[in-house]
Amino acid sequence: MLLSTSLFRSLTSVRGLALLKPSPSTKTCRFSSLAIDMSTFYDERFFDHGRDHQETKRSNATPQIPIQTTATPVPPTVPDVEDLHIQALQQQQTSYVDPTTGFTVFTELLHLKRGTCCGNQCRHCPYGFENVPQKVKNSMLNSSVPLPVAKCRSGDKARTQELVRAIQDGNFDLFLNSSIANLSDGNNATTNPNSTSSKTVKAAIIMATTPTTTTTSKNVPYTRKGDTGTSQLGTGERRPKCDCNFEALGTVDELCSIVGVAHASLSPKQYEYGPLPERLLDVMSRLFDLGSHVAKPRIQQVASNDNDDSDGSVTFKPNGIGDGFDADHIDDLESWINEMTEELPELTSFILPTGAIGAAQLHVARTVCRRAERRLVPLVVDEATCDPNALRYLNRLSDFFFVAARWVNFCEGHEEIEYRRETAETKQRERVHRSLN
């Protein structure tokens, strides 16, 4: 196989030039020992039969050497998100994980169960972006980005429940015929056959469904996404369930449940506990807030200039949904502790964690609270992704549980069992029963 000199020059941009050797007798080039992907050379610009490409007689041609080709590696196939959405609908799941971003995407089933358009341009919105600002929709239409098919209006409870039942029963024919004519703004894409939701509907009808033995139109606690040992934070990031954030989050959740048991163990119809039952409900609410905060770890920030008073830590903003923790709740705990302590006898020794059932449960809550506090330390001290006020709250909360346990024994008339030495000469501490009234 002969190549002209000009063709040799045009090949200088192609990998493998070290394998091309010029032949001084014919002023052409021939392949010596070449291992290269020849698809690189099969380009029409290299086979222009012009003056630079003079044919050489076959009798004078340099014997061709067999060319070894190497296979081009095939990139891994990324699953189509629409296929994933269809599979999620078939399994009646409310979300799936986008393989490109790793984020969780809500399916049409979840949006229909919610009943309204949230206005956040969700990928599988069944309401045709009804509550998305008109300016945003116009920008999408100008960019030839199709809006999703509107299968029902936002807030139409009867229609959304009908569509939810259709998914659960595998009746996707109803889905195909569930586009409304036009929304009030006139920019609905219900007639666009290329829209995301339209593709989903047509493909879902073709693919076989796998109904479960029972169905429900209400939200269920399982998603199946955690079956492989990962879970999702409030930021959308998935991490192993043994991650320190989930360790802290799970312990706070455990603590909240134990406080619920302690609250249920009280007998307000029989005994007067003052404001304690209501305060336990408040504590459970605060633990929900604290858990939301742990589920949304923040990235540490650096001070912008030398005059900045910040020490480089994150500025947390308490808002009840996880962006921070309000220090006022710590003041409340201290105030409640002071009120109960004022009515109780002076504490002079260790006490056994027993007495009334409610008091014993509050002692359990105290010990679990200490564990939750230990789980939170790395997030506050080492990673600086959690509000220090959350750690302070747990530290004070365990003290509150201790005093609250004594308070329940006091209110129900149970004795307190001290564990102490009667005299300095006593070798072993002993249990001493003492009335709190």
TrEMBL record:
<dbReference type="InterPro" id="IPR016030">
    <property type="entry name" value="CblAdoTrfase-like"/>
</dbReference>
<keyword id="KW-0067">ATP-binding</keyword>
<dbReference type="GO" id="GO:0005524">
    <property type="term" value="F:ATP binding"/>
</dbReference>
<dbReference type="InterPro" id="IPR029499">
    <property type="entry name" value="PduO-typ"/>
</dbReference>
<dbReference type="Pfam" id="PF01923">
    <property type="entry name" value="Cob_adeno_trans"/>
</dbReference>
<keyword id="KW-0547">Nucleotide-binding</keyword>
<feature type="domain" description="Cobalamin adenosyltransferase-like">
    <location>
        <begin position="222"/>
        <end position="408"/>
    </location>
</feature>
<protein>
    <recommendedName>
        <fullName>Corrinoid adenosyltransferase MMAB</fullName>
    </recommendedName>
</protein>
<feature type="region of interest" description="Disordered">
    <location>
        <begin position="214"/>
        <end position="237"/>
    </location>
</feature>
<keyword id="KW-0808">Transferase</keyword>
<comment type="similarity">
    <text>Belongs to the Cob(I)alamin adenosyltransferase family.</text>
</comment>
<comment type="subunit">
    <text>Homotrimer.</text>
</comment>
<dbReference type="InterPro" id="IPR040807">
    <property type="entry name" value="DUF5522"/>
</dbReference>
<dbReference type="GO" id="GO:0009235">
    <property type="term" value="P:cobalamin metabolic process"/>
</dbReference>
<comment type="function">
    <text>Converts cob(I)alamin to adenosylcobalamin (adenosylcob(III)alamin), a coenzyme for methylmalonyl-CoA mutase, therefore participates in the final step of the vitamin B12 conversion. Generates adenosylcobalamin (AdoCbl) and directly delivers the cofactor to MUT in a transfer that is stimulated by ATP-binding to MMAB and gated by MMAA.</text>
</comment>
<dbReference type="GO" id="GO:0008817">
    <property type="term" value="F:corrinoid adenosyltransferase activity"/>
</dbReference>
<dbReference type="Pfam" id="PF17653">
    <property type="entry name" value="DUF5522"/>
</dbReference>
